[in-house]
Amino acid sequence: MSKRLVWLITGTSSGVGQELAVAALDRGDQVIATARARSFDMLASLKKKGASVVELDVTAPLEKLESIAADAVKIYGRVDVLVNNAGAGTTPGVLEDLTPDDTLHQFNTNLFGPLNVTRAFLPYMRERESGTIAWIGSGAAYSLIPNHALYCATKAAMIRISEALNVELQPFKIRSICFDLGWYRTDALRPDRYQPLVQRISAYKQMAEEFDAVLRNSYMTQRGDPAKAARLLVQILRGEGVAEGREIPSRLPIGGDAYDLIKEDAVNSLERIEEWKEVISTTDADEEKASNL
Question: Is 259 a catalytic site residue?
Answer without folding.
Answer: no
